[in-house]
Design a protein that fits this description.
This protein has 6 helices and no strands. By secondary structure, it is mostly helical. The protein starts with a helix and ends in a 12-residue tail after the last helix.
Length: about 160
């Protein structure tokens, strides 16, 4: 139990560090071709935050929301709404937010941080999915039909 809590806290700490770095690090390595569309970056940021908030609200309504990778006791598998299109819409929204930050700052550093965040969320999602497979017998079927972060145009569900 303590080992699980430590692992969960480690995942959350690294996530918070990456998100804080995106928010607070100064721009470094200006990308001049992005300067004219910096305002678009702010719109992208807003869209990402709206998506993450909506996905979080949907999890909270089902009493499944937790910042930890380990599923809550009594959590339900949510496969409707945003979760019908992607398995991790909260992470999708945060990645969209981070991409918007990178555009808005027109900074090489922020694009690197966006890439690191993407790699981090991919690893964290894979870890969560192992735990969800243990908890929910129908999770592998959900995985087989639902993309991780980006909806598929050919998705039939």
């Amino acid at each position: 139990m303590k080992s699980t809590m430590f692992k969960d806290l480690s995942w959350m700490t690294l996530q918070l560090v990456l998100l804080a770095a995106l928010l607070w690090m100064p721009a470094f390595g200006l990308l001049p071709f992005l300067v004219p569309i910096r305002a678009l970056g702010l719109l992208v940021c807003s869209a990402g935050l709206v998506l993450s908030a909506a996905a979080s609200w949907q999890l909270q309504a089902g009493r499944s929301l937790t910042p930890m990778p380990s599923p809550r006791r009594g959590a339900a598998l949510i496969t409707r709404g945003l979760y019908r299109r992607v398995r991790h819409p909260v992470y999708s929204g945060l990645l969209i937010w981070a991409f918007g930050i990178a555009i808005a700052t027109a900074s090489v550093l922020h694009f690197v941080l966006f890439g690191l965040l993407g790699a981090f969320f991919n690893a964290k999602a894979a870890h969560e999915e192992r735990l969800l497979t243990q908890k929910f017998s129908d999770y592998p079927e959900y995985v087989a039909h639902t993309p991780r972060f980006l909806p598929s145009p050919t998705q039939s569900r």
